[in-house]
Amino acid sequence: MEMQGFRKGDSLYVYLSGEIDEHSVSRIRRDADTLIDENAGLSRAIFNLAGVKFMDSTGIGFLIGRYNRLKRYGMGMYLENPNSGTDKILTLSGVYSLMPKV
User: Fold this and answer.
1) Where do the H-state alpha helices sit in the chain?
2) Can you tell me the distance from the alpha carbon of 19 to that of 61, in angstroms, rounded to the nearest whole number?
3) pLDDT (0 to 100) of residue 5
4) Rounded CA gap, 40 and 1, in Å?
5) pLDDT tens-digit series, residues 12-49
């Protein structure tokens, strides 16, 4: 699992790639939380999922945890470019009701 993030205007862009599962999520959770904390006060965070090859329920938990952290800062969270498998999981789980797909 890899993560890259950068600020552009009033948005935080987070690019995820690899597999989001119980074996990879602990490091990426810490890195994402640090990135969010360092960019508190922006209007939104956009998580790009184009590079995510596999995601299970741990990945959903990861996204919801970041959503809750961003919400504390008053920031919105959006998801973009999920592959068809990831999109199906996110649709079935109802995640898009919290984090719209852009």
Assistant:
1) 25-38, 57-72, 84-93
2) 14
3) 97
4) 24
5) 999 999 999 888 898 899 999 999 999 999 999 999 99
Q: What percent of the chain has pLDDT over 70?
A: 100
Sign of the Cα torsion 50, 57, 32, 97 reads positive
Write the pLDDT tens digit of every residue in 44-61. Answer: 999 999 999 999 999 999
Strand partners, 79: 47, 101
The one-letter amino acid at 56? D
CB within 8 A of 46, min separation 6: which ones?
A: 11, 12, 13, 14, 77, 78, 79, 80, 102
Specify the pairing of strand 44-55 against strand 11-20. parallel
